[in-house]
Amino acid sequence: MKQLFIVAACLAAAPPLTAQHPEHAHMQPARSDSDTAFAAMQARGKTVMGVDQYTARHVFESLPDGGRIELQEAGDDTAAVERIRHHLEEIAQAFSRGDFTAPGLVHLQRVPGTGVMASKRDAISYRMAPLPRGGEVRITTRDPDAIAAVHEFLAFQRREHRAGPS
Fold first, then answer.
1. How high is the pLDDT of residue 29?
2. 123 in a domain, yes or no?
3. What pLDDT is recorded for position 166?
4. What's the domain range around 98?
5. Helix 78-96 and helix 33-49: axis angle, to 10°?
6. Which of 49, 70, 71, 138 lies 20 to 30 Å from 42, alpha-carbon distance?
7. Mean of the pLDDT values across residues 20-32?
8. Is 63 within the bounds of a domain?
9. How many structural domains is the chain composed of?
């Protein structure tokens, strides 16, 4: 309940993208509804993950046996790196239990693929490994339905976080 309140507060208070990070204003075209929605999602992501979404780099890579989620801090903020590692460890543990609450809070919806991933949690492995400026969660399985669900989940995340192709 506390997380839902925090997310609701973020939605209500989310400033425009350029107000949050004026140095990124030149990178964005004229504001649109999708920019506003993206900025709101970024604010929710910061609340849920504890990491500034504009200074961290996401990678959502589909692999033949599952995939991986990489999150690394762009700068030399050691406290942010520790927050990233802590968040990814919590994500690996939650996903192992079939708990996909965090992505649901960030995206304000049930994230595609998570229903199957939750039902097949015993067939999927989630392992967090540190990287120089953050970490990654490696997702592995041999179950074809679980692989398809992981790929669906990662494709959604790539698109929503504007993380580019993988």
1. 43
2. yes
3. 58
4. 2-160
5. 90
6. 138
7. 40
8. yes
9. 1
